[in-house]
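Tokens in:
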């Protein structure tokens, strides 16, 4: 099993930027599998945001395409989510996960003026 620790959230105005990080507890378990970012808002289920695979390919949900970039640093066993042109609807708690991890504490992103 592997655990992730998410960080980098905060309060930002619409149009602003944030970069989220999540560091894995186990490098081999991180490097061997796809890793995903999810977002959860109060009263709603976690929704998938983006994925980064070990071969370097990525996928993103339509609402963040052109604004968010997902990437991995294998040497640091860390995945990132660079978020630009943030909108209020991007607000939520962001989590990262792979097929063998449990849910962590997440990091809160609030987009508000």
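Residues out:
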């Amino acid at each position: 099993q592997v655990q992730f620790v998410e960080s980098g959230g905060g309060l930002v105005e619409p149009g602003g930027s944030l970069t989220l990080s999540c560091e894995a507890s186990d490098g081999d378990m991180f490097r061997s599998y796809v890793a995903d970012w999810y977002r959860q808002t109060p009263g709603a289920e976690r929704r998938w945001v983006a994925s980064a695979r070990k071969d370097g390919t990525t996928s993103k949900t339509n609402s963040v395409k052109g604004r968010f970039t997902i990437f991995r640093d294998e040497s640091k066993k860390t995945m990132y989510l660079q978020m630009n042109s943030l909108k209020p609807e991007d607000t939520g708690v962001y989590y990262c996960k792979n097929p063998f991890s449990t849910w962590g504490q997440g990091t809160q992103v609030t987009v508000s003026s």
